Amino acid sequence: MDLRALNARRHPYHRLRHALLAAPIALIAFVTVGDILAPSDVHLGPFLVAAPALTASFAGPRTTGFVGAVAVLAQVVVAMVRSSATDLNHSVQIVSLILISVFVTLFAQLREVREKELVQLRSVAEAAQQVVLRPLRERIGPLRMASVYLAAEAEAQIGGDLYAVARTARGTRLLIGDVRGKGLEAVGDAAVVLGAFRASAHQEAELSGLVAYLEGAVAPDLQDACVEDAGGGDDRGEAFITAAVLDVPDDRQTLGLVNCGHPPPLLLRGGRVIRLDVTHPAPPLGLSELVEPGPAAQTFAAETFAFEAGDIMLLYTDGVIEARDETGTFYPLAERLAAWPGTGPRALLSHLCDDLLRHAAGHCLGDDAAMVAIERLG
């Protein structure tokens, strides 16, 4: 999502602010007229304090100060009509209103500064998202695809989930992964994986060699992070990255898959959902040293599956299938995928996103979730 989309979302809020401004102005008018017409022993002037206080909750310091000045002027008019602006009762009300107006105007200034900082942070996050998670093209060779990223935190734009596509001379290679952990460390690890994939996807002839290259790039980075954080009291020593790496050739209706501890892709064919479970899964990236050493072709052996014209393959992270409803039930992705009546990757992801958020308790995900849908064209 770019900055223009962010500004488009902000425009309705600005229009709402202008509409809300009518409330304190109307309050000032109502209190002023009521105080003038009220009996001599009834004083409504103290209610004018609510006008600048209400304005400070949604407007900036200039608007808040303006409303406060109007409220003070209204209080002076009331005092002059009813008695005198210099009598003790009205003098105390006017001075108190001035002090409170200044006070809430300062708070409005602090809130506006905070809002500007949040907008800048969102802009930086969106720029990082565009760099780290580059938007996927809708059409690549014989494939049509779409992607979506759902952040668990409302203000976040990117986390440890990742995906990428690279076009080669013989086909298309895809990567989806999930970094264990959250925060800036997860974003950094995701950037390392994506950079290594984009650098080697065109150079490694075999899929096993590509995954071995990713392992070689990720393992030292995770080990360095573990050394740096050894005294930090966290669990970076258990850092790893699950990933699924695929190779879809142009001239054959098949795909090659190396699964490094990642949830298996799902293939939708004629209303049936087929799990692409590999026979010999590879260890997650960063954990290959825990298995017996051997040739990369064996450790990261690719397995072949049919990927025919009209099939739609769904890649996803565990944030999707681990989303729970109010009763604690996990999201039944395969079941919902099989019941989908539409066509096309973009429509599929739109349907799954809406359905996933409805399923999640309070429309909040417990973890970041990413999905990539790929359709093989005829």
Structural class: alpha+beta
Task: Specify Rg, calculated over alpha carbons.
Answer: 30 Å
Low-confidence stretches: 1-11, 233-237
Work out the helix count: 11
Number of strands: 11
What's the pLDDT, averaged over the residues?
A: 83
What does this protein look like?
It is a single chain. This protein has a six-stranded antiparallel beta sheet with strand order 1-2-11-10-7-8. The chain contains eleven helices and eleven strands. The longest helix has 45 residues, at 88-132. Strand 5 (241-249) and strand 6 form a beta hairpin. It is 47% helix and 18% strand. It has helices at residues 3-20, 22-37, 50-56, 61-82, 88-132, 183-200, 207-228, 296-299, 318-321, 333-338, 345-359; strands at 139-140, 143-150, 161-167, 171-179, 241-249, 254-260, 266-269, 272-275, 303-306, 312-316, 369-376. It is elongated, with a radius of gyration of 30 Å. The chain is an alpha+beta fold and 378 residues long. Helix 2 packs antiparallel against helix 3, helix 2 runs parallel beside helix 4 (61-82) and helix 6 (183-200) packs antiparallel against helix 7.
